[in-house]
Amino acid sequence: MLERLNRAMEHIECHLDQRIDANDLARIAMTSEYHFRRLFSALAGIPLSEYVRRRRLTVAGAEVLAGERTLLEIAVRYGYTSGEAFARAFRAMHGVGPSEARRTGAHLHSQQRMSFRLIIEGSSSMRYKVVEKEAFRVVGRKARVPLVHEGVNPAIAAFIRSLDRDTLQRIENLSDQAPDGIVSVTDDLDESRAEGTELDYYHAVVTSAPVPEDMDALTVPAGTWAVFESSGPFPHTLQHLWRDVFTQWFPSNPYRSRPGPEILRTRLSQDTTHADAELWIPVERTTT
Question: How far is CA 22 from the centre of its chain?
Answer without folding.
Answer: 15
